Each structure stands twice: as C-alpha cells, then as structure tokens.
C-alpha cells in the first residue's frame, strides 16, 4: 500500500505533519481484480462511457488521449498534460463506477501523515493544544449532521477519500448544489492538476454501522441521498501554484475548495440540499480566533483506530497556528481524527444556534493529536461568489 503524504514541517517546530486524506491503491471492492479498462466501465449495463462532445474537444485541446481517459489510465500524465488551471476541471459521470461496495473499500494505507486573515491573528502561533479524543456523531446523520458526507476520487496513486459538506447557495435558497472540501482532496497542487471521478455521498452510512457490517447494511442507509458527481470545481490560485505534498504544506492556509455537483441518477428535480436534508452557511468574516469560544470538526476518519464508516467529531476552543507570518493564520484544535477526515467541516454556532462553517480539516501531526484548518477570507469568498454566480441561472 502507498502511504499518504508525509510532509515534515520545520515551522513552529512541527514534525510529521500530514494532510488528512486516506488513500487507496487502485481498484478495490467488486473491481479489485479489474484491469483499468474494466474498472472504468459502466457497471449498470449502460455500455461504453459516453463523454459529451464539448468535453471530448476539451481533452483533445490538451493533447489527452480520449481512450486512455475513458479507461482510467494515468500513465504519462505529466504536469503539461494534467488539467490543472481554473476552468479546466473535467469530471464526466461514469455511472456505477462508485458502487456502494467500492466506496466501502476505499482504504487508507497500512503505513501511515496580508491576505485573508485578521490582523490580531496574523503571524501568531499558540502553544500546542491538548489532544481531544474524537467522538462518534449521533445517528441518524440525516438528522444530526445533514449534508456532511464522504468524498471519493481517483488519483495517479490510487483511489482516495476525504470528507465534505453541503453549503448554502444564495442564488438557490433551499436548493443548493454546492459542496465544500479541502483543496488537496481535489487538486494535486503545483506538480499536478485536478483529480478525477470526484463523487460526493451526503450522509454516508447514516446509521453509523461499523465497516464490518457494511455488507449487510441496506443500500438506503449506506447511500441515503444518492451519489453526486462534481461538474465544476474551484480552489485557490495559491494552492494551484504552490500546493501539494511536502512543498505544499506551507500552502495549507489556502487548502480549501468548492464544487458544484449533479446527481448520478435522477432525483425528480430535487437539489442536493433537498436530498441531503440540509446545508450550512459559510462565514467568510469570522471573528478573531481568540474570540471563538468553541469549534467543532466533523468528518469520516479512515486510519486506525477509525474504520472510515463512522462520522466522528472533535470540539475544542480554537487556537492559532501560523506557518508563515506573511500567510493567513490557521485555526488549530486538539483532535485525534486521522486520514479521511480532510475536507470535513469546521463549525461554530451562529447567532441562531445553528452550525456555521468557518473552516475545513486540512492537516495534523502523526500520531494524531491536533488538527488545523484554514481561515476563510477574501480568497475563499471570491471562489464562492464566482461559483454561485456562474450557476445562478441553472435550475
């Protein structure tokens, strides 16, 4: 098995800091023995993968072999041919590619790893917080955490998983199709580009059954609100330019991303927010970190001692972590969540007592003691506003 990224960070005397993404190593589950051409087939009987003409033209413009794309081949996908810039994201729906068994088997590795900030936080690092043991989120998630879910995707190193969240869209009140996650869950950074087969499962495993019982868990509990494929994606220019593995860790303050999604199957015209049962407001003007009394992180950690099936949470008073005095200061909390929790929401209580998203899980040390997430300021708001405006005319 390949290990997840294991960057070592000298700043603030931190070691073994990792992006909290769980990575598999190729086809698994029902397709464990499949060749690339088989694993990319439409397993529901729909035959050959159909890529719309406009997407075919886009691929050809970048010198990408259409057959290799359809067969899931990453060989020789160097930076020059890897779609990486804003507006280049392509993610055709491959119906049945992420069947429930395959989703369940996306495993972590055996050997696990003055821009936007507020002036009084800039360049400040507080003492390391005490570890806070993650606790299972109460079930059913459709009631206790509607809209929080599992994100799966394909990378050149294998299939991987993160966490993500439905967020409110001002252009479509009550009917949002927007999902928030971490940049490193969708884009490789400076040495690569957008990942593929990016698909979101809201309220995954809503009854919280352990992975050992997933085979016998009803489909409607494992995938209660359908499978939603990203059809548009945006992240920070800072991440695209300099993000990634070891050299990308200093870009963690810009480790956020937003996607627009569409359903794999028909939903009777219902939006993601309606199907998931909820969405969360994003606050791009949160108060100084020291003025936030409590912050809760949620997600699906998949490295030991967690199994990736159960949604977990950590609640702590946030402190400050500065990786570079010239970059935004990050939120940091005590938390033992591991790989797979990346991209999961970080909530504070809004004036009405409801959760408001102010950050997302980005990174932490190994072994897991604390976690850090970016402050969402002007850069994050700009990609959010642009995405909402772009899809405003869509029903």
- Total helices: the number is 9
Give, in spatial order, the strands making up the sheet with the most strands: 4-5-6-9-8-7
For the secondary structure, the number of strands is 18
Low-confidence stretches: 1-16, 25-47, 109-120
Q: So what's the oligomer here?
A: single chain
Radius of gyration: 19 Å
- Which percent band covers the strand fraction? 15-25%
Average the pLDDT over all residues and give the rounded result: 81
What level of helicity do the residues show?
10-25%
Gross morphology:
globular
- Compressed to H and E, one letter per element, the order equals EEHHHHEHEEEEHEHEHEEEEEEEEEH
Structural class by helix and strand composition = alpha+beta
Instruction: Give the distance, in angstroms, between the N- and C-terminal Cα atoms.
Output: 43 Å
Largest sheet: 6 strands, antiparallel, barrel
């Amino acid at each position: 098995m390949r290990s997840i990224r294991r960057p070592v960070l000298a700043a603030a005397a931190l070691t073994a800091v990792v992006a909290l993404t769980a990575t598999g190593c190729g086809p698994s589950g029902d397709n464990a023995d499949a060749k690339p051409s088989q694993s990319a087939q439409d397993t529901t009987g729909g035959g050959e993968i159909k890529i719309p003409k406009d997407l075919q033209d886009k691929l050809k413009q970048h010198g990408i072999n259409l057959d290799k794309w359809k067969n899931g081949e990453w060989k020789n996908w160097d930076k020059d041919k890897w779609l990486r810039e804003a507006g280049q994201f392509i993610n055709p729906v491959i119906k049945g590619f992420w069947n429930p068994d395959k989703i369940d088997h996306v495993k972590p590795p055996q050997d696990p790893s003055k821009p936007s900030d507020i002036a009084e936080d800039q360049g400040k690092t507080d003492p390391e917080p005490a570890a806070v043991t993650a606790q299972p989120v109460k079930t059913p998630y459709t009631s206790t955490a509607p809209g929080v879910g599992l994100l799966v995707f394909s990378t050149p190193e294998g299939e991987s998983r993160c966490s993500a969240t439905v967020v409110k869209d001002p252009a479509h009140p009550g009917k949002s199709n927007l999902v928030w996650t971490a940049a490193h869950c969708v884009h490789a950074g400076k040495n690569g580009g957008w990942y593929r087969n990016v698909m979101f499962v809201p309220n995954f495993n809503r009854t919280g059954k352990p992975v050992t019982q997933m085979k016998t868990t009803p489909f409607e509990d494992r995938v209660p609100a359908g499978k939603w494929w990203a059809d548009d994606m945006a992240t920070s220019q800072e991440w695209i330019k300099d993000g990634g593995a070891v050299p990308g860790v200093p870009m963690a303050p810009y480790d956020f991303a937003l996607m627009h999604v569409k359903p794999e199957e028909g939903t009777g015209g219902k939006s993601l927010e309606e199907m998931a049962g909820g969405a969360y407001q994003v606050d791009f003007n949160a108060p100084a970190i020291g003025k936030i009394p409590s912050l809760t992180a949620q997600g699906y950690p998949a490295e030991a001692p967690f199994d990736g099936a159960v949604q977990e949470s950590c609640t702590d008073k946030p402190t400050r972590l500065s990786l570079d005095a010239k970059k935004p200061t990050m939120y940091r909390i005590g938390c033992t969540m591991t790989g797979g929790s990346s991209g999961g929401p970080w909530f504070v209580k809004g004036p009405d007592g409801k959760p408001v998203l102010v950050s997302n899980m980005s990174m932490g040390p190994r072994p897991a003691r604390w976690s850090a997430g970016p402050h969402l300021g002007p850069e994050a708001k700009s990609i959010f506003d642009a995405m909402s405006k772009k899809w405003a005319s869509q029903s």
